[in-house]
Every structure is written in C-alpha cells, then in structure tokens.
Amino acid sequence: MFRRILVASDLSPAAEQIINMIYSFHVLGTEEIVLVHCLDIRDAGLLSETLIPLLQPEVDREVAKLNQLGFVTTGEIRIGSPGLEINRVARERDCSIIVIGSHGYSMDQNTSLGGVATTILHTATRPVLVVKITSPPSEISWNPLNHILYPTDFSDNAKVAFTYLETLVRCGAGKVTLLHVQDKIIGKHLVDRLAEFNKIDETLLLELRDQLVNEGDVEVKIEIPFGLVAQEIINRIKTDEVSLVVMGTQGRGYIGEVFLGSVSNKVVRYSPVPVLLVPLVK
C-alpha cells in the first residue's frame, strides 16, 4: 500500500527535515519516491521557465539523498497552483500517499510548503501524511510503527482510515490505541445514557481490536473518554508516546466539511507527531 509515495518539497531547510525522516518508510515497504517541487504560477509568472534551470540542481540534490537512503527516486518541477499540481502528480504517478510538512498552528499560512497544505488537503484523493516541522530539528529517529493512535467516530471515513491501520499492523506495528471520544458538547444532554453508549461503542471497538489482532502480533488498547473530541485526541498524543496518528478527514458531524474547522484540522495543527489523514473518496 505504501510502495510508491509522493514527497512535496519547497527546497527549504524545513524540507530537509522531511527528507531526513523518510528513511523510516522502509519499514512500511516503500520502494519508490516521487519528489515534487511546484512553482506557483501566481508568484513566478513569466519567470517560471527561467527559474526551472536554477532550481533543478536543488531538486537533483534531494533526489540523490533519497537515492542514497535506498529509494528509487525521481524528481519533478511543476508550474501551476502547488496544491492542485501536487495532487495531480500523485494521481498521475499512482502514489499511495502524499507527504507534506507543516509548522502547525495556522494551516492557512504557516506551512513549509508556503501556504498550500490546506489546498492539498481539500482536494486530496490520496491519504496525506502531515509532518510537523520543528525548530531545532528533532534528533530522535522516527519509527511510525511504535505506537499508532486511531481516533474513530465509526463513520464511513473512519472505516476507510482503518484499512490503512490494518496495513500498518501487517507491517509490524507494535502497539495501537483505538480511541472513541464521547463528545462532551453533543452528549451533554444525554449524560444519563452515557453508560449505554459506552457499552455499544466498546463492542464496536472490540470488533476492531479483534480484526487487528488477526492481522499481526500487536498490542491493542481501547479507550472511550468523555470530553472535547480534539482535545482528548491531542492529550493522548502528548501523554501516551504516540508515534503516528491515523484518522479520517471528516466524520459524521462534518457534512460537507472536508478539513477546515474540523477535528482533524485541530489535531494536525497541534499534534507533535505525524498525522496520516485519509480522505473519503466517493
């Protein structure tokens, strides 16, 4: 499932952090990488064709580094709207996921891709792995399979995300936490039925646990807290030594809302670890 991935680069020092952590993708079975740098036609304008020869050596340098890490890597420079072009390349090259960087806090402005992360996420038909850019860069090597957090609301999108979780377990994930948050806002008028809902949801989580255990030798923990959904997810990321979050981009409560303002947006903004956002492709 992760054999060929797309890595979006703005050729900045921040992009170097993404390049350096890509080695960990070997444990996911990744063999090929498509490295893409996009010149925004709105900024470069008529200079685009002139800039390509100047940027090509930087693209070649990053390609060479990824090749040295053991991946078959090709590099491309595209001209257009970066968010749209990156998704276009992912479709054309049949990449299983897109890897982008983010500084967090404001997905509209402060991203390592110059403000295109939101567009990528809005139009993505492939899962997007959002990697937090830190300053200074972390010196700790990243193993995505150490402890995976899977927040679920049992929506159709969450079910699609679960298929990626199953693949990660087959790749050798050591620990998985299945998390369903009883929404404090929605459920404040139904507190007297909380025990009933917990029992129903525990049954659903146990079924998911059994599916994962059948996929590999993995430790699976189940949690059903009561509180604010995004806050509970973020708290567990920070306190439970989570290495990767896998979740859908939209849930049952976000009709027509793909990313902005959703729980997934808040998780991406404040998560200190990479988040794999899986879209519901209709």
UniProtKB/TrEMBL annotation:
CDD domains: USP-like. Residues 1-132, 146-279 form the UspA domain. It holds the Pfam family Usp. PANTHER family: STRESS RESPONSE PROTEIN NHAX, UNIVERSAL STRESS PROTEIN MJ0577. Belongs to the universal stress protein A family. This is Universal stress protein. It comes from candidate division WOR-3 bacterium.
